Amino acid sequence: MKLLEYEGKALLARHGVPVAAGALWPQVPESGSGWMVKAQVLAGSRGKHGGILVANSRQDVERCAGKLRGTRLGDEPVHAVYVEQKLEIEQEYYLAALVNRDLGRVTVMASPAGGVEIEQVPESQIFSVDIDPLIGLADFQVQSLKRSLGFRDTTATLFEDVVRKIVETLIGEDAELVEVNPLVRTGEGRLIAADAKVVLDDDAVFRHPARSVPIAWSTDSSFMQRCRELGVIGVDNRSRVPPPTRPTVSLLGNGAGLTMATYDQVALSGVSVAGAIELHGALAKGVAHTAEVMRALFMLEADVVFINAFYQLRSTDALAQALLQALDSPGAPGRERVVVRMRGVKQEASQQMLEAAGCFYTPSLSAATGRVLALAR
Amino acid sequence: MTILVGSNSRILIQGITGQTGRLFAEKMVAGGTPIVGGVTPGKGGSRVADVPVFDSVREAVAATGADAVLSCIAPAYIVDGLYEVVGAGIALAVLYIENIPVHDAIRMCAYAKARGTRVLGPNSAGAVSPGRANMSDLNDVNLRAGRVGIVSKSGTLTYEVIEELHRHGLGESTVVCLGGDRVIGTNYVEVLRLFEDDPDTDLVVLVGEPGGGLEYAAAAQAAKMRTPVIAYITGQGSPRDARMGHAGAVVGDDERSRPQNKMQAFSSAGIEVAALVTDIGAMVAHRLRRATHELRWKNERRQP
Question: Does A205 reach chain B within 8 Å, measured CB to CB?
């Protein structure tokens, strides 16, 4: 999960990375040098979209914050406004630690060309080291980054310290990415993290029980919130599909690969997908729970409902029962709009049950896709 | 011959007395998979599905000569569990479990690699050579021995690819599921190389997905191989930043993570790419027919 700048900075500060004095508006930190008023959004390039404003007085801070709060930057809602002491910038660097999936290692990337998106920086200006997890960040690696960025004297020591602490933050907080862009060298020779982009590992939440719920979740749709409560993976695509392009399909699959492939079968044929649920083992929690998952799927209010489940060792009975229970609830779609493809142990029993109830059933993905597309067109 | 698992495998189940472990043990015994025992600390001396249970992997290896472990233990014990498997000198470990913190996966996989244990997963559906050994969650009745290899991250999507092959009268040599997590123990290139050296594999279906960039090295490897490869990348329609179930399968800001760019990499390398999963069977059948013709044509020219 992505964190907002101020949430990320709180984690950095906890690991000893220097950040500017800041507070969530309406609180305003002390400053003798003016303030930066920053929209808290989950996407980058805020500056370009007018999400960062400079204020020279407290009245100015109020004016800027009033302008930013509750608005949108591009597609992104502004979740909060963060006010920081303005820094006197001598140079901007780039520094990040991240999980390098292809190598299966943590990589530290640094560049003397900070303050712009790293994708815009020529490769010759980007320096990186990969950390062997059996050894950890080695001193020679820190030294090589320091030399590559041209740090000397006391700032060099500060830089070494920041590199180590960024890696500590990444691993200690179970993050996938800790990006500081820019890392600012001030006129007084200090190094300060002027921005922070942190992405946490969803699978390590249990190790950090004291962490509060990320603020960004509060703007999720009720469908997404319901999926989270039920322990299934929800994808809500409604805000990305322009409203008049109806009819739409909602789909439910078991397993990520099959759910994505089913999504493609529909979406690549030019029919809009309102959203999807990946069951993520929900069937093991019983019929009543799975029926709740089906009801969550109906919250997408799509015109066609596509169920595609493929089990190897499990019977599909419970899934069929759950679907029929949910279809009996008020507000459920008509059965003629439901297409079911189920494979599993004793699938014939599920077929009989579903067909007797008036749902379309087929064991073939091609046939199911054909039916869904015909209904949606 | 097949790869990774076969008639000569000697398989252990770690966590054999748990619900999942017991299910796998019964399935393996019923299907004729060469399972030699299981491990659960404190349950040594008992039996599950009529195979012996040991207190430690080391004891199990000493008693049975086991060389492969299917790990079915709870997430809280998985890191320690893999260290034990590696320490006992096991050649292949399948980590069925998912939702392992990524920094744990990094450490585990690095340790296993350094000590010579090949890891499939985390979040792997396993490996199976039909009719010889089934170290996966696939049902033996849904498998058919044949000459097509499959390497995929996903489990459920692999079921679909197998069904596609069967629709066209084809079967599988070995099916290998790498796992859907962000950091996994074995990559496509390693498995492609094994298939290339396998005389019983005529063609490989490679299934990729959004996220990361392991498919790019796979495309370069496939281009070098005599064994033909057909690639399919799922998640082409997946919305940006949506986690579709696999921790790893996210179309991110990184251009390399996008399925379309991965497909392009395979096309540029001269590898055929299927647009939909339901296209795969026909493409494989067609490619194999062409390969047979080419071979016959070559042989005829050689012996006029």
Answer: no
A254 at interface of B, judged by CB pairs closer than 8 A: yes
Q: Tell me the C-alpha distance between B146 and B165, whole Å.
A: 10
Model confidence, pTM: 0.93
Residues 41-70 of B with CB under 8 A from A: none
The verdict on whether B246 is a catalytic residue reads yes
Residue pLDDT, tens place only, B101-135: 999 999 999 999 999 999 999 999 999 999 999 99
- Helix, strand, coil share of chain A (percent; to 5): 40, 30, 35
d(CA A294, CA A227): 10
Q: Tell me which of B103, B168, B246, B293 is the catalytic residue.
A: B246
- Of the three residues B86, B104, B120, the one that is the final residue of a domain is B120
**Ranges under pLDDT 50 in chain A:** none
Asked if the C-beta of A99 comes within 8 angstroms of chain B's C-beta atoms, the answer is: yes
Query: Nearest by CB to B156, which of A104, A176, A257?
Result: A257
**Alpha-carbon gap, residue B65 to B181, rounded angstroms:** 30
Q: Do B159 and A276 touch (CB under 8 A)?
A: no
Residue A94, pLDDT score: 96
This model of the complex carries an ipTM of 0.92
pLDDT higher at A116 or B280: B280
Per-residue CA distances from A283 to A15, A288, A289, B13 (Å): 41, 9, 8, 24
Contacts with B97 from chain A: Cβ below 8 Å: none
Residues A69, A66: Cα–Cα separation, whole Å: 6
The parent domain of residue B137 ranges over 126-293
Nearest to B156 by CA among A357, A280, A110: A280
Same domain, B114 and B130: no
Q: Is A189 helix (H, G, I), strand (E, B) or coil?
A: coil
Kindly state whether residues B44 and B157 are assigned to the same domain.
Answer: no
